Amino acid sequence: CFNGCTSLVQVSNIPDSITNMWKCFNGCTKLEQVPNIPSSVTDMSFCFNGCTKLEQVPNIPNSVTNMRWCFNGCTKLEHVPNIPDNVTNMSFCFNGCTKLEHVPNIPNSVTNMYSCFTGCTKLEQVPNIPNGVTNMESCFNGCTKLERVPNIPDGVTNMSYCFKGCTKLEQVPNIPNSVTNMRYCFGGCTKLVQVT
Length: 196
Description:
Blueprint: E1 171-172, E2 194-195
Parallel strand pairs: 1-2
């Protein structure tokens, strides 16, 4: 739609008939405001990828199921609205959102959190991780303010690089028996003292 429109500052309207916003505003590095997202949209993957001036976004409709790379690299984004109940894929969703301090609840429908919060250097806490999540590779990699994490659900198989570089992390919960890959999971966690 507006993929790579590097001079675009504002869009006043998105047609109600739109269902797919894949790469809609991808790389719109000057975009500061976006209108309401139509209630028929299901795919928002790469939607705001690289929108480095975007500080806030409107509510995300419940129809959305795919948010992979949605806010990747949105370095000015401080707050995000509720995540819809039907989303399954949040890989790279908030990757590199360096001003993001809090995130809303993650719905139970989510299964993929690969690199979801990588590089969120202001993130201090995260909500519960849904029971259906299987992939947490690099999920919190480089979250340098993160001190604690919620329980890791039984069913997660991949935790490689998950907490790598979390230099304030002091405690983590038990690792479930379902995990098969933990490569560099806690690499560089210099304050980690306990796995409970």
